[in-house]
Specification:
The chain folds into 2 domains: 9-120, no CATH class; 149-320, hpI Integrase, Chain A (Orthogonal Bundle), CATH 1.10.443. Helices cover 45% and strands 6% of the residues. It has 12 helices and 5 strands. Strands 3-4-5 form a 3-stranded antiparallel β-sheet, with no helix packed on it. It has a two-stranded antiparallel ribbon with strand order 1-2.
Length: 339
């Protein structure tokens, strides 16, 4: 980050008495305003049940405070933040090489804070609102690559079915590829989340914002999960993590498994290891399995609203960003031109 503060940061108020910032219509002393801001900030961070979201919000806010030279002990100065300060931060982030999607997310975090402050009683404008500071555009088509059907099958079959850890990995990859779930959702799964609902076997998945959804399972995923639970002895341990790491780093799970869940980073590393072993596109990540699931289902006729529910998205426009056109070049207008 740049060390320079935003243009006009001399305009940030430092007087003992500040203009009214919260409902009430009376001037507030700095310590009174600071206390209200701190209370609101704690409420804003605790609003979401997602620990990852809270950490992301806190990191983004910390970066803005550092840029604006506002200490954590002087949050009353948030009342003096203006759109030009936010725009200057946007410019600094661009100069630092942040991607448009990263900048957009950071501006969204700041806008979310001021929106919460307004609900809390803050009477000032939201300086990060899109009408004041435009977020950079991002491509509608995301950057995560989708696997071809052939390469997805190769990845699904890559783990060794003759070792306990290979049986686990085969079940893990099947869940990722057949449910389109986020990796963070998958690592939070418990054995008891593998359920029967009527004629369907489903996974109870907890998504962003604590939202719960039941995802029907493909027969291959069911078969692989049953094989994994039988091999691990976890079938009756309903509270155990569905995908734990082995007790020993060597032995391929023959010494048993821990009663803890694989981390997101561990799954990312696992997928990367198999991608390199198979010689797949180096751009393939664990997120590619989610993109592949949504793309393949769309190609085979799934309705976008059904896909939205399947993916756990709040907005179908988000779902559309996951759909890749695998054969775009073959459909180019160049091939229909004739003179």
């Amino acid at each position: 980050m740049q060390d320079d503060g935003p243009p006009g940061d001399e305009a940030l108020l430092t007087d003992e008495v500040l203009p009214p910032a919260f409902a009430g219509g009376v001037d507030l002393h700095a310590d009174e305003l600071r206390e209200l801001m701190e209370q609101a900030l704690r409420g804003w961070l605790s609003k979401t049940p997602s620990e990852n979201t809270r950490e992301s919000y806190e990191l983004d806010l910390g970066q803005f405070l550092s840029f604006a030279k506002i200490g954590r002990h002087e949050l009353e100065r948030l009342a003096s933040v203006r759109p030009e300060h936010v725009a200057a931060w946007r410019k600094a982030l661009m100069q630092d090489g942040c991607t448009n999607s990263t900048i957009r997310r950071k501006l969204t975090s700041l806008r979310s804070l001021f929106s919460y402050l307004q609900v809390y009683g803050y009477t000032g404008a939201n300086p990060a609102h899109g009408k004041f500071v435009k977020a950079p555009s991002v491509p509608r088509d995301g950057k995560t690559v989708a696997l071809s059907e052939r390469d997805c099958r190769r990845l699904l079959d890559a783990p060794d079915p003759m070792t306990p850890i290979g049986v686990r990995d085969r079940a893990l990859f099947a869940v990722l590829a057949y449910t389109g779930s986020r990796v963070g959702e998958v690592v939070r799964l418990r054995v008891g989340d593998f359920k029967t609902t009527g004629e369907h076997r489903v996974l109870k998945v907890y998504g962003k914002g604590g939202k719960e959804r039941s995802v029907p399972l493909h027969p291959e995923a069911i078969e692989r999960l049953n094989a994994w639970l039988a091999a691990s002895g976890l079938t009756d341990d309903r509270e155990a993590p569905l995908f734990p790491p082995p007790l020993a780093s060597r032995g391929k799970g023959k010494h048993g498994f821990r009663r803890s869940a694989l981390s997101v980073r561990a799954v990312e590393y696992l997928v990367d290891r198999y991608v390199r072993k198979l010689g797949l596109d180096a751009a393939v990540t664990v997120h590619s399995l989610r993109v592949t699931a949504l793309t393949t289902a769309r190609e085979r006729g799934s309705d976008i609203i059904d896909l939205q529910d399947f993916a756990g998205h709040a907005d179908p426009r988000t779902t559309l960003t996951y759909i890749r056109t695998r054969d775009r070049l073959s459909k180019s207008p160049a091939y229909v031109l004739k003179y």
